[in-house]
């Protein structure tokens, strides 16, 4: 996709109409499944072009390598039971994760570096920080392979409710059970920063705040100034474009 078309698809819509996927902040309704899949796979370190051994070889090597890294993840069989990935998919994901993170965990700085490759035209550091917080479920400052695949399993294979709950947790920055305008503004500013300053058409400085107001007009049903998980899920399910954006992540890997 040409840069101009990509940037225009990011900025054509200023309302919460599905043009940004609620899970990742990525553009959705103006791009095909194929394009979303290609960009998502580009983000995953395990999908960088490599000449990989056969799965049978991987299985033997993985057993040995699991004993040499600093953090040893759960067995593939156990992870298969706990996620919606097959053992083969887990082996592919693990090999890529290990190649990028030999210690078995990724810290926030490395996570930001990986995510910056996805949006080279802007500053993705703040949004990557929020995303890292969502993956770091143990709040220990690192994301293990288990953290990674648990989150990925929800985003790619979870039910609509699972995915929306994950998105809500991403937006609920202080984890108090509701989304405030201040939290949503921080998220929207990070998304606009990630999109880059030199977009077409150019964005106004007050665009993030306008987007937040639109979000609350649609989501804050009882007008109490905050959006609860029930309001969020109910509103998203009634929005055809948001539901379409959920489907774009089906069968990505």
UniProtKB/TrEMBL annotation:
Q: Which InterPro entries match?
A: EF-hand-dom_pair, EF_Hand_1_Ca_BS, EF_hand_dom, Recoverin
Query: Which residues belong to any copy of the EF-hand domain?
Result: 123-158, 159-194, 207-242
Q: Name one GO biological process term.
A: regulation of potassium ion transmembrane transport
Against PROSITE patterns, the record matches this protein to: EF_HAND_1 (PS00018), EF_HAND_2 (PS50222)
Q: Where is this region: Disordered?
A: 1-34
User: Basic and acidic residues compositional bias: what residue ranges?
Assistant: 1-17
Keyword set, alphabetical order: Calcium, Cell membrane, Ion channel, Ion transport, Membrane, Metal-binding, Potassium, Potassium channel, Potassium transport, Repeat, Transport, Voltage-gated channel
Entry keyword Cell membrane: yes
Where it sits in the cell: the answer is: Cell membrane
| One term under GO cellular component | voltage-gated potassium channel complex
Which terms does the record give in the GO molecular function aspect? Answer: calcium ion binding; potassium channel activity; potassium channel regulator activity
- What does the similarity note say? Belongs to the recoverin family.
Name recorded for this polypeptide: EF-hand domain-containing protein
